[in-house]
Amino acid sequence: MPSGRVHNLINLAVYAGLSAAALYFTQTQALVITPAQALSFTLGYGAGTLLLSPDLDLSEGQVDSKRRWGPLGFLWVPYGMMFSHRGLSHTWILGPLTRLVYLALIAALLWGVVYALVPHTLLPYSWLHPRVPVNHQFLGFKVAYPLLAGYYLSQWLHLIADGIRPDHGLRHSGRKARATLRRFR
Ligand SMILES: [Zn+2]
After folding, report:
1. What's the domain count of the chain?
2. Distance 95 CA to ligand 1 centre (A)
């Protein structure tokens, strides 16, 4: 199994290759990539490589991607306890999603604690009444999709380096279902 360092090097090399290709194709005007799209893709890719690696399923112990969270690394311990190494966390579609949902739940929980404990007079008005005008098209094509694309690509490179095929989850659950059936026969 490749170490965290090897995974990072692979992702960095692919990113360098993609950047060179993107630069070439935008210069020949075969492709139009806005700075917002490039930045969003890079942020998703970087976060997926360094902070949200599938190996967070080992966070009940010590692992690179947990260490990178610094003092917040403990937040991933329950995730490591919930997910077995290279199980659901290492599937192609649901795996990366589990970490996004987990992160959203933690953020909501922290926000709830702040909201309950800190006197409202101390919080900025805009925190309590967030009212951001949303331009959906901007968010979709310029930010959200490139962000997601960068994130998922970084995760898939990790899975490829681990030697895990896209049907990993299906085969896994198929094996489990067959084992259960055998027990009842
Ligand atoms: Zn892995």
Report:
1. 1
2. 11
